[in-house]
Each structure stands twice: as structure tokens, then as C-alpha cells.
Write a structure and sequence with these properties.
The complex is a heterodimer of chains A (67) and B (251). With 67 residues, chain A is mainly alpha-helical. Chain A has a domain of 37 residues. Helix content of chain A is 52%, strand content 9%. Chain A is built from 2 helices and 3 strands, in the order H-E-E-E-H. Chain A has a two-stranded antiparallel sheet. In chain A, a hairpin with a 2-residue loop joins strand 2 and strand 3. The radius of gyration of chain A is 15 Å and the shape is elongated. The mean pLDDT of chain A is 62. Chain B folds into 2 domains: 109 residues, no CATH class; 96 residues, Alpha-Beta Plaits (2-Layer Sandwich). The longest helix of chain B is centred in the middle third of the chain and has 39 residues. In chain B, helix 5 runs antiparallel to helix 6. Chain B is of the alpha+beta class. In chain B, strands 1, 2, 3, 4 and 5 form a 5-stranded antiparallel sheet that branches. A 4-stranded antiparallel sheet of chain B has the order 7-8-6-9. Classes of the chains: A mainly alpha (67), B alpha+beta (251). Strand 1 of chain A pairs parallel with strand 10 of chain B.
Chain lengths: 67, 251
Amino acid sequence: MNNNVIDQSKDITILELLDRVLNKGVILTGDIVISVADIDLVYLGVKLLLSSVETMDQLKSGTKKAE
Amino acid sequence: MAMLIYAVLQTKPGSGNLNTIPEDIKGIREELVYAVPFKEITAVVGNINETNVIPDKLDVIAYAGVIEKLLQKYTLLPMRFGSKMESNEAIKNMLENNYTEFQKNLQKVENKVEFGLKIFCDAEKLKQDLLKKSEVKEVSPPHKSIESKNSVFTDYINKKLKEHRYEEMLLRYVETVITEITDCLSSLSTDSRFTKMTSAKQLIDSVFLLEKEKDPLLIENIQTLQKKHPGLNFILTGPWPPYSFVELTLK
């Protein structure tokens, strides 16, 4: 396993950033989330991250190349 | 046209309202950002034309960039991407109606940043290691004469029992690691959140809130823990604006 805990990977940083910006922070309730083709953007964010978080470990350990 | 809200800032007592945002801070698609103040808090907003905007990853990154730049100068509460209101007046009313809650949250995160720590494992290897340590005793058939009849049943019971014991062992192991992290960071972190076993490979997903200048100590402590657990993969990211420590849903 990699002993470098402070990750310098751009891909991991972007995943972590997307997770925070799309799923956390102050929430405004009501009809205030920007949508894409009637699909809630927050849902898109969650879906994206569910598949991405599993690749995070592979990205760090170098077993998967960033797309 | 609508107003996209990036963050709500705290302006220091005595400094009055913040009416202008530094010029080097641009919004998504290079749009101007500006301040909508109320007493000692200020919303940072930008115009957005919804009909032309299909938000993509670059917009989200640009949005986060605005918040990062603001964090260097102010204590702030980041808004979730996509938060918009119809007018400056509506934003001012929102600030006024939630003023006490905004101040309470701002005080909690004043001069602090967030770090994220995810811990991954090789699930199969960890399973083998934990099972080896436990020396699980399998259930013996009740009587030799009915051994053959019950072998399928016994195998099934043994398998289920083993799985159940493994899950218990894994949970205990994860709780031990969390206790180690908590003990190690107790003098640094003012708040933390842990989520256990979010997937077979991801054992722990955690976030910590700590004062800005304590970054190096946190990194040092996590490195020590990583060395103690060479079979685990620690991924530390930060410093982030305090996204995970905002407890505010506006109506």
C-alpha cells in the first residue's frame, strides 16, 4: 500500500471537490436546483460519485489510469 | 435571469457591510460576482442565464474556485451548487430570515478548514487476515450417523456463521481504527464525522474540522497512522471550505 497519505492526484481532488460542491453546503429548499433536461443535477452528482468513489483507491494505487 | 449564490460570508464586527468583491474573483463562465449584504453577513452572488446554461464539470469546478478564493479572506458557509434565487431582494430577505442560523454556523467554522480522510482496504486480504486471527470453530454435526444426511445443511450453517462472525470482526476492526484516529486527533480537530463501511473496499469515510494553522500536525498524525496500518490505504484531502460542517437548510 502507498504510504503517501497526502494525495497529490488531480483526479482524486476533483472527485472530492465534486462530492462537496454537489452534495454538501447550505441547502436551499424548493425549486432552486438547476436541472439538466429535467433531471435533478444533485442526483446526477450522486450517481457520478457512486461510480467514481470506487475508482479512487485504484487511482491512488496506480492500478487504474485516469480517464 | 437568476442569481446564483456561491457562499455566505461573515464580515468582521466594525467593518460594516461588504459591498464589493475583489476584482480577481470571477464567477462561472467569467461572469461578475457581487455582494448582497445584510448586517454582518453577505451573500456572494452572480447572474446566471438559466436558458443558456447546461451545468457541467467545469462550471462546478469554477463555482468551487470562487468559494476557495473567498475562503482565503473570509469565514464563510459554502452554498450547494445550483442554489439560486430570483432577485437581490429575495436574497436579502433570505439572509434576514435566517440571520441567527447563519451567524451560529459561521461562528462554528470561524478560522477553520475541513479535511477529508477515506480509508480503503484490499477486502479479500483483510478478510483472510481477520479470519486467520479469529480461529473460527465450525459447527460439528450432532451425531456421526446423520452426518452424511446433514452435510449440506451443516456446510450452509457453517458458511453463514463464518460470514456473520467475519462481519462482526470487521465492524470491531473498523471501530478500533476509528478510535485510534479519534484519539490521535483529539487535540487538533474540533469536530468530525465518520461513516463506516460505505462499500466492501471503503472501510471509513471521515471529515475533520480544524483550525487553519494546524494542517501540518494533522498530516503528520495521519502519516503515523498509515505507517501503523500498512494494509490500509489512507487518502487525505484538504484543506477544504467547511462543506461538511454546515447544518443549515433554508426555506
